[in-house]
TrEMBL record:
It is a lipid-anchor; GPI-anchor. This is GPC5 protein. PANTHER family: GLYPICAN, GLYPICAN-5. PROSITE patterns: GLYPICAN. Its main location: membrane. Belongs to the glypican family. It is found in: Cell membrane. It comes from Phainopepla nitens (Phainopepla). InterPro entries: Glypican, Glypican_CS. One of its GO terms (biological process) is cell migration.
């Protein structure tokens, strides 16, 4: 009653043993594909982690740099500005990780929160009553009167341009892992599991436990079994080309690092612009939001403190260098994996599975 290992000679197999063999080949094939995928997946996950760590390091540097701007040049509002600054950098981090948000919404939300502080602490430092309604009116007015001039829009443009490649790379790496995971659990067809049993276990039914499949026979069986996985070849090559493009975009331009380190400078310029136009802004705000309560003998506007650009610190240089090195290592490895799906049958027939350098092997019917 054998269905797969039918042979003219006497046999020691039963139908139940054939069923066990089918379960064994399914398990072994999954394990062998997982083993092949492991190195590739390990590299992608490792790069995602390294990229994220280096990026977070740059982000922390830029955030600290921005916070110190408020503490040194705009002390009257430093404490209240801490939360909007933190939110801005959190939003940027989430954007890179693929969250449904935009750089523009993050930057404009920051400037919406900043304007009430600049207006009440720097332009009109005598204001004592900053109610929720008045603060909200200032936030909404910011969008119409554009107190920060071109600097808020410039910041959106610079960051959007520099962060998109990082966001795309992050999403592409996640997609790569999804593809690899899906190949690990590709179900074997009934025909395939029967062919694998015939190749690997039917010799056992005749007591030939040491004979292994012939190389050509193994390749034919594996190519048939993995035809659907091999179809990924063209898309995988395209995926590697896309990764190359994204990493070279990031490496050549250095825009990510420069844009992040320049955030504090853009904010500084924006605040200076608002202070210089203080009287006109006050006149417009009074018409729209009304006049808030002020201390007697209205204090003079806070003095404008221009801040000179600080030279880049060692931390930033190290994070920048680390990011570039990781990119180079990673893309070099990924280029080598370009033929991964085209050669998967050859790799599975390599090693212990087949008989090499021997005069005898199993061809599916007999020892030859």
């Amino acid at each position: 009653d054998l269905q797969i290992c039918q042979h003219r000679a006497p046999t020691c197999c039963t139908k139940k043993m054939e069923e066990s063999y089918q379960a064994a080949v399914r398990r072994e094939r999954t394990q062998s594909i997982q083993a092949l995928n492991f190195e590739l997946k390990y590299m992608i996950v490792g790069h995602m982690t390294a990229f994220q760590e280096a990026f977070e390091s740059l982000l922390r540097f830029a955030e600290n740099h921005t916070s110190s701007l408020f503490e040194t040049a705009y002390r009257p509002m430093a404490k209240e500005a801490a939360e909007p600054v933190k939110e801005l950098f959190t939003d940027i981090s989430l954007y890179i990780l693929g969250a449904e948000t935009t750089v523009e919404s993050a930057v404009l939300r920051f400037f919406d929160s900043l304007f009430p502080l600049v207006y009440s602490r720097l332009i009109n430092p005598g204001i004592t009553d900053l109610s929720e309604d008045y603060t909200e009116c200032l936030r909404l007015t910011r969008q119409d009167i554009n107190p920060f001039g071109r600097y808020s829009k410039n910041m959106v443009t610079e960051l959007s341009k520099s962060l998109w490649a990082s966001r795309m790379l992050s999403q592409a790496l996640s997609l790569g892992i999804e593809v690899i995971n899906s190949t690990e659990h590709a179900a074997l067809t009934k025909e395939c599991s029967r062919a694998l049993v015939k190749m690997q276990y039917c010799p056992h039914c005749q007591g030939l436990t040491l004979i292994r499949p012939c190389v050509g026979y193994c390749l034919n069986v594996m190519r048939g079994c993995l035809a659907s996985v091999a179809e990924l070849d063209a898309q995988w090559r395209e995926f590697i080309s896309t990764l190359e493009y994204l990493t070279s975009e990031m490496a050549v331009s250095h825009e990510l690092e420069m844009a992040l380190s320049g955030i504090w400078s853009s904010i500084n310029e924006a605040i200076l612009h608002a202070q210089l136009n203080g009287p006109q802004l006050s006149a417009t705000v009074d018409k729209v939001c009304g006049q808030p309560k002020q201390q007697e003998g209205n204090l003079s506007s806070a003095s404008i403190v221009p801040v000179k650009e600080v030279t880049e610190t060692q931390t930033f240089v190290m994070a920048h260098s680390s990011l570039n090195n990781k990119r180079r290592e990673f893309i070099s490895y990924m280029k080598r994996s370009r033929t991964f799906y085209a050669s998967i049958a050859e790799r599975l027939c390599d090693g212990d599975l087949v008989m090499r350098d021997s005069s005898t092997c199993w061809n599916g019917e007999d020892v030859v």
